[in-house]
Amino acid sequence: MLKKYGILSIIGIILLIALIFVTASPLSFAVPNIQETPSISAITKPSKDKPDVYYFTEMNNVIPTNDKPEYDIFTVQERKERQLTTNLPSIEPYYGKKTIYLTFDDGPDPENTPLILAILQENNIKATFFLVGTEVNKYPELVKQIYTAGHAIGNHTYNHIYRELYQSPVTYIEQLQHNDELIKNILTVRPRISRAPGGTAGHFTTEYWRRLKTEGYIEVGWNISSGDASNAKADAILENIISQTNKNTFLWSHAILLMHDGRGHGETVRALPSIINFYKEQGFEFRVINTATPPAW
């Protein structure tokens, strides 16, 4: 018995020494640390539980052919670092018989945005939200709510301050890219569509348009204004929209309606159910802004 246990002890000691040697050997450090060197797909590609949207990936030449929101898994800087194209693919604009794009600027706002999301959900409608970076910073959970509900998100610059935005094309692009980074930090993706605060007229020069194209942004204007940037009440907002829509029937194939969900736009929220009913009664289809959306004018 003693000899038997003595042999077993010797074998155990040998195995222990061998284990210590292997662990301490430089070969043991040849296994890569996954946390330190993640693959591109591990850190940028959305997971399966994301909403039904289209993602621009490494293969940026794929042309989306649907009515889905579109997001990029890379920022402009990340595309450049990986020597990927920043140019957007060409796609035939979608002109429907009666098409309306509901768009909301200046959010997200903790008071108005959730109410608008609830109204849209009740009506089974998707819309487009152009978000300001300072508000994105304050309300990341609202950004997630907009995204997971299947709405489109657009870039409305970082701070919306005209004197800072429009100093030059460089400062404008810097604000867009800063907002991109904020949104991507929340969602793991960022938008390719953008809207200039106050519109491009009187603000953009040829160089602004050139830089936007080079960086791969789609500038989105509007052709119907709700007039809710004033102190208009809900009835006046609705009447303004109806009047412009009926007057400009040539826009029915791609009517892009400007509204706001930022602070102080409670009247827009109150008008929204009636606005939706008006377009439903007129037989309009509701779409989100993406690469297939025609220019406003």
Structure description:
Helix content is 41%, strand content 13%. With 297 residues, it is an alpha/beta fold. It is globular, with a radius of gyration of 26 Å. Mean pLDDT is 87; it is low at 1-5 and 19-45.
Instruction: Describe the largest sheet.
Output: 6 strands, parallel
Task: State the CATH class.
Answer: Alpha Beta
Strand content: 5-15%
User: How many beta-strand segments?
Assistant: 11
* Coarse structural class: alpha/beta
Task: Tell me roughly what share of residues is in helical segments.
Answer: 40-55%
Tags for this entry?
3-stranded mixed β-sheet; single chain; 6-stranded parallel β-sheet; TIM Barrel; alpha/beta; 297 residues
Q: What's this model, at a glance?
A:
By secondary structure, the protein is α/β, with parallel strands linked by helices.
What's the structural blueprint in terms of helices and strands?
Elements: H1 2-24, H2 40-44, E1 54-56, E2 70-72, H3 76-81, E3 99-107, H4 112-122, E4 128-131, H5 133-138, H6 140-148, E5 152-155, H7 162-165, H8 169-187, E6 190-191, E7 193-194, H9 206-215, E8 218-219, E9 224-225, H10 234-247, E10 255-260, H11 266-281, E11 285-286
Parallel strand pairs: 1-2, 3-4, 3-10, 3-11, 4-5, 7-8, 9-10
Antiparallel strand pairs: 2-6
